[in-house]
Amino acid sequence: MFQGQGxxxxxxxxxxxxxxxDDNSKIWHDIIMPDGKMVSLDHSPYEWMTPHxxxxxxxxxxxxxxxxxxxxxxxxGPLHDEDLDRLMM
Length: 89
Fold this sequence. Notes:
The chain is an alpha+beta fold and 89 residues long. The chain has 2 helices and 4 strands; from the N terminus they run E-E-E-E-H-H. Helix 1 (51-64) packs across helix 2.
């Protein structure tokens, strides 16, 4: 996958950054809004987000005026790609 500036969709842009430590690595997922504001997403830090999932986050935002998070799937953990698939059905 990519690190740094990624795909754009409907004026939103995805950025992902990998943070490596001695015993693990985590991936942080941020969306840059059309107005330039950065929003961190509640997405698993152990998987790269696909362009398809990024588009689903944007479409959810357009419909609900907020990004989805763990409350939407009644979970204690962050969202995964398959969670967005279920939310967008």
